[in-house]
Design brief:
Shape of chain B: globular
Largest sheet of chain B: none
Order of helices and strands of chain B: HHHHHHHHHHHH
Distance between the termini of chain B: 36 Å
Number of domains of chain A: 2
Radius of gyration of chain B: 23 Å
Largest sheet of chain A: 6 strands, mixed
CATH class of the largest domain in chain B: Mainly Alpha
Order of helices and strands of chain A: EEEHEEEHHHEHEHEEHHEEEEEEEEE
Structural class of chain B: mainly alpha
Oligomer: heterodimer
Strand content of chain B: under 5%
Helix content of chain B: over 70%
CATH architecture of the largest domain in chain B: Orthogonal Bundle
Number of domains of chain B: 2
Number of helices of chain A: 8
Strand content of chain A: 25-35%
Radius of gyration of chain A: 25 Å
Number of strands of chain A: 19
CATH topology of the largest domain in chain B: MetI-like fold
CATH architecture of the largest domain in chain A: 3-Layer(aba) Sandwich
Helix content of chain A: 10-25%
CATH superfamily of the largest domain in chain A: P-loop containing nucleotide triphosphate hydrolases
Chain lengths: 355, 298
């Protein structure tokens, strides 16, 4: 790729007999904000640390801007790293923390001062420059860590679970701020997260990592709409796995698999009369009703299958035991290594659509 | 042997609510027992030292202290401490560093080895050096052929003192450095700092109070060490007698006032140590609670 900035080729990393990273390859374009998403212990952080040079791959190559950097020390990679717990220098003030990387690089005093104040301004920390880390809130510490990593003008910014340690409320605010700031500076950035909302909201592109393997890479929309592997289909969004989906109305597709993933947003649930394609819908019984704040989550049973669907708070409230109609628009059928989107045939008669 | 206690016990701690605590009477009995015990075992002897040393007037007191043999013992004691403490600080930092920052085979063995001086009787520590470096040993004979005397001279005293006091600093630093982890150092590396800079600007400031605490304990023990030094010194008056040895000699010669006067010097050093130690405990406690706060939030 012409404007690929980071290239990772077949990297492997084992800790003892545990394979933390398993033959992972990807390329990242300059200026992109990339999310490494996956369950905890899946190898995301290890990949990030290998990119930083804090960990070394057992095999495989890493290129920054065309240069092989496998043996280059973290000091010389031109990276900024934001640690999960920020790792601020506890005995240094905010100013000293941010200035550290510049002093190490022997910037002249006045330039250090200008740059630090520029970053303090950028990160909204004005007035706090003489505080020590323990005198700051979690969100403020996060900003200091971010400013410190950015100060020496790295060409790659790496963030390890940057919001994990922050209160839910501040987290949302901070992540949109961070996404905006990164976009403003235009620095290539990679962040690790286990929170799919965070990845979807912030990243230009997402790499889904599971058990040390790269499952899929793409824009959030692409990954959501077209999951390549069963893992991605079940990991992204809220999913229920259905066995023997042939038993359901409109899904008698012959595609050599019997299992499928269904998401709440693929379904409509209602009393008879509320559903448009009544002939394509399944008869279902309400098993459970959960209040989810902004909507109802309804557990329904169709034959042996259990589904979870959403229902607006505006509509008539359902009760356990109610008979309802469940219209399933589509599902992701999958076998061991691939997924296929299948649509409800009765709804789209006469032509089945298989993507 | 003290030292491993860094926790400031005076304040904080979990207050036990009444439903799991003992009745008031038990509390007061325990307090009374502790106070009476400490007064009779610790405080009373200290007071007697001062009292006995001043019994025959301040003139005699000062005379016994400025007397040449006493001064030479004081000088030797200080010399030993001045050599021992920095060396043990250096080796203690090395050992703590190796144990907390690296993974290697035999790490547990090294940790146990550090504890050996606490387990072995000081007299035996002294004997080890006699056997190793005495005139009858190969190594001792080799040194002798170059006219270097180790046993019954300053080098022997320093070696024996180092052996006895080594664990204080390493033992103090290991838990501290373990608690701090390597993240700040990784952060410094990612910002471009070399190993040396990382040590001086990040690692060292974080351990300095703990190190100082270890040094104070090490120093106190180096000054007061009797057993090991007694074996290797040879008790040459005015030459290889440290303060504690000098006290013993005076006592054996029935010069009680002089013995107590010199002892009082050691008591003053001990009191000074306790004051400095309390200050450092307060400082490290402060630092630790900051650390906990940072870890807690972050």
């Amino acid at each position: 790729m012409a404007n690929s900035y980071i290239e990772v080729k077949n990297i492997n990393k084992k800790f003892g007999s545990f394979s933390a990273v398993n033959d992972v390859s990807f390329t990242i374009e300059k200026g992109k904000l990339i999310g490494l998403l996956g369950p905890s212990g899946g190898g995301k952080t290890t990949i990030l640390r290998i990119l930083a040079g804090l960990e070394y791959a057992d095999s495989g190559d890493i290129y920054f801007d065309g240069q092989r950097v496998n043996e280059v020390l973290p000091q010389d990679r031109g990276i900024g790293f934001v640690f999960q717990n920020y790792a601020l220098f506890r005995h240094m003030t905010v100013f000293q923390n941010i200035a550290f990387g510049l002093e190490v690089k022997k910037w002249p005093k006045q330039k250090v001062k200008d740059r630090v104040f520029e970053l303090i301004e950028l990160t909204g920390l004005s007035g706090l420059e003489n505080r020590l880390p323990h005198q700051l809130s979690g969100g403020q510490r996060q900003r200091v860590a971010f400013a410190r990593a950015l100060a020496p003008q790295p060409s790659l910014l790496l963030l390890d679970e940057p919001f994990a340690a922050i209160d839910a409320k501040v987290r949302k605010e901070l992540r949109s701020w961070l996404a905006e700031t990164i976009a403003k500076i235009g620095i290539t950035s990679i962040f690790v997260t286990h929170d799919q909302d965070e990845a979807v909201e912030v990243a230009n592109e997402i790499l889904i990592i599971n058990q040390g393997k790269l499952e899929q890479m793409g824009s959030p929309i692409e990954i959501y709409k077209n999951p390549h592997t069963p893992f991605v289909a079940s990991f992204i969004g809220q999913s229920t796995i259905i066995e023997n989906f042939h038993e359901l109305k409109g899904f008698d597709h012959e595609i050599g698999s019997t299992r499928a993933v269904v998401r709440p947003e693929f379904m409509d649930l209602g009393k008879p009369g509320e559903i448009n394609f009544a002939s394509a819908a399944q008869k279902a019984v309400v098993k459970n009703v959960f209040f989810r704040g902004s909507n109802w989550e309804i557990e329904v049973q169709v034959g042996n299958h259990i589904f979870y669907a959403f229902r607006s708070l505006e509509k008539e409230q359902l009760r356990v035991g109610d008979e309802v109609l469940l219209l399933i628009h589509r599902m992701y059928a999958f076998n061991d290594n691939q997924t296929v989107i299948i649509e409800n045939r009765l709804k789209e008669d006469p032509m089945p659509v298989i993507i | 042997m003290a030292g491993i206690v860094t926790k400031k016990a005076g304040s904080g701690g979990d207050l036990r609510p009444p439903h799991i605590s003992e009745p008031k009477i038990v509390k007061w009995i325990l307090i009374a027992i502790s106070i009476i015990f400490l007064c009779s075992i610790v405080l009373l002897p200290l007071i007697i030292v001062l009292f006995e040393s001043l019994k025959n007037g301040i003139g005699l007191y000062l005379e016994s202290i400025v007397e040449p043999d006493a001064m030479s013992a004081l000088l030797l004691t200080i010399t030993v401490a001045v050599i021992t403490v920095p060396l043990n600080s250096f080796f203690g930092i090395c050992a703590a560093w190796a144990i907390t920052k690296f993974q290697f085979r035999g790490k547990n063995f090294l940790i146990s080895l550090i504890d050996v001086p606490f387990a072995v009787s000081p007299v035996i520590s002294g004997l080890i050096f006699i056997l190793l470096l005495g005139t009858n040993s190969a190594l001792g004979a080799w040194f002798e052929s170059y006219n270097i005397q180790i046993i019954f001279a300053l080098p022997g005293i320093v070696l024996a003192t180092m052996f006895v006091t080594f664990p204080f600093i390493a033992r103090e630093l290991i838990p501290l450095m373990q608690a701090q982890g390597i993240q700040e150092e990784e952060a410094a590396a990612s910002l471009g700092a070399s190993g040396w800079k990382i040590f001086w600007r990040v690692t060292f400031p974080n351990i300095k109070w703990g190190l100082l605490y270890g040094m104070i304990l090490c120093n106190a023990r180096a000054i007061g060490e009797f057993g090991a030094v007694s074996v290797v010194s040879g008790h040459i008056r005015g030459e290889t007698n440290t303060l504690p040895l000098h006290v013993e000699i005076l006592y054996n010669e029935y010069q009680f006032t002089a013995a107590f006067a010199v002892s009082s010097l050691l008591v003053f050093i001990a009191l000074l140590t306790i004051i400095v130690k309390s200050f450092i405990e307060w400082k490290t406690h402060q630092q630790q609670s900051q650390m906990q706060e940072v870890d807690h939030h972050g």
